[in-house]
Design the sequence.
């Protein structure tokens, strides 16, 4: 059919009939335009998916479920945690970046988000502009730990110890390109130590190697190490945070031991597709920050090795930008690439 010709029953170009139809069309469009606002006001009307970038059972998964349970009570809908592990958190990030911007798919974003471009080049399957930082959630402080059978009791001791080892020290990390790996590279450079990173698949294997004397130190999360620390088999000699951590208050910061730039941690937060309606963003952000201000939630997070540190979207966005600049510099100086 040639659509350029007016059908025989088309509206007249002028007259009362056309005016009547135009009024009807305008009313219909107004009603349709009102639907999204109404839907946003009612959000959520069905379960919300919280996409975790790691597998089940770890700190990411456990903390997502702790927060999800609280958010479900506040929002009046089930929060379903879905684990989409793989590719250094990129699988989960891509999934949410491509999801409908309706508030029903939320990313539980982790620290590798800030380093992905520097580590993997420009071949990412998503753009940062596709996601909107919604709220900062928590930090996972990184602790510098050694075997208790050694005489090492401080960062300075570790530096001196490294001088006695051909090629320097071996630092165990839970994976290439991970935040502990990058933090260890920063420590080596700032302390002027020779050494290499030895990569394992997770924190627990790194501590097993430390206990066996096959690595000299680790700089990673403390939760898996606590039983060994309490048993006197491992020793904490520092924490890479700005202030001492509530997780292990007796550990001095690496900063106060003379290395002020060695500040690093794992972290988690919430992101949504960039076009998510403002009303939904506001409500979800408020619920997240309320959860992170709850004393019971804070304690549950501490129990799994995490410190609540809620912050709204704009502050979280600045934090991510700062992290990206900092770790991109470390990655380039250390010539780190991850396949």
Sequence:
């Amino acid at each position: 059919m040639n659509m350029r010709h007016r059908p025989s029953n088309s509206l007249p170009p002028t007259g009362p009939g056309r005016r009547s139809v135009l009024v009807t069309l305008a009313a219909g469009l107004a009603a349709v335009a009102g639907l999204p606002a109404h839907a946003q006001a009612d959000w959520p009307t069905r379960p919300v998916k919280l996409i975790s970038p790691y597998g089940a059972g770890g700190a990411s998964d456990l903390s997502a479920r702790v927060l999800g349970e609280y958010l479900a009570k506040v929002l009046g809908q089930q929060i379903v945690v879905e684990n989409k592990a793989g590719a250094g958190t990129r699988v989960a990030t891509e999934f949410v970046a491509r999801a409908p911007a309706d508030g029903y798919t939320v990313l539980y974003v982790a620290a590798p988000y800030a380093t992905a471009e520097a580590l993997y080049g420009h071949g990412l399957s998503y753009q940062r502009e596709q996601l909107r930082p919604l709220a900062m959630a928590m930090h996972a402080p990184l602790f510098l730990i050694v075997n208790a059978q050694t005489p090492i009791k401080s960062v300075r001791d570790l530096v001196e110890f490294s001088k006695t080892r051909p090629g320097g020290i071996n630092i165990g990390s839970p994976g290439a390109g991970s935040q502990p790996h990058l933090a260890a590279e920063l420590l080596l450079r700032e302390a002027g130590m020779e050494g290499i990173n030895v990569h394992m698949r997770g924190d627990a294997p790194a501590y097993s190697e430390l206990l066996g004397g096959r690595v000299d130190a680790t700089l990673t999360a403390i939760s898996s190490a606590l039983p060994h620390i309490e048993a006197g088999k491992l020793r904490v000699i520092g924490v890479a945070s700005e202030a001492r951590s509530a997780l292990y208050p007796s550990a001095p910061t690496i900063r106060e031991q003379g290395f002020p730039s060695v500040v690093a941690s794992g972290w988690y937060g919430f992101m949504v597709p960039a076009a998510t309606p403002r009303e939904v963003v506001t409500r979800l952000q408020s619920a997240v920050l309320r959860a992170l201000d709850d004393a019971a939630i804070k304690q549950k997070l501490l129990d799994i090795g995490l410190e609540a540190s809620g912050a709204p979207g704009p502050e979280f966005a600045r934090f991510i930008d700062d992290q990206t600049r900092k770790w991109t510099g470390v990655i380039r100086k250390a010539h780190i690439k991850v396949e």
In short: Residues 176 and 199 are 6 Å apart (CA to CA). The domain at 143-257 is CATH 3.40.190.10 (D-Maltodextrin-Binding Protein; domain 2).
